[in-house]
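Justification of resources, computational component.

The compute hours requested in this renewal are based largely on the per-chain cost of generating structure records like the one below. Each record pairs the submitted sequence with a full structure-token output. That output is archived, and it is also reused by downstream analysis tasks.
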Amino acid sequence: SCGNAEVDDIKLRKCTACYLVRYCSVKCQKEHRRQHKMECKKRAAELRDEILFRQPISSHFGDCPICFLPHSIDHNEFKLMTCCCNAICVGCAYTNELREREGTCILHARSAGTRFQRIMKNPK
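The structure output for this chain reads:
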């Protein structure tokens, strides 16, 4: 880069590949390209790897088998079902408590469609 500082009349532009270097003009960028090229490619590859290998926010507790939402890291936010050893979220646990009053565990419904219909019929 030419060493110009960013002032009101000169807006510096970042290198769009690595975001490390700023240039006052396209001419300045072209003149500096030969010196900057290797470092730029290395940094651009690092940025791509960071984006590619970034892990989604989830926990090792898995997903609720009923609503398929990921379990919270807080172990108080899901309940282990003693009848089948499945962990379900607190919302589905509440619905299951209502189902158990009728004598049926929500996880043991015959089909997913039946389970969904039962949940939607009595969401209290």
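Residues 1 and 35 are 10 Å apart (CA to CA). The first strand starts at residue 13 and ends at 14.
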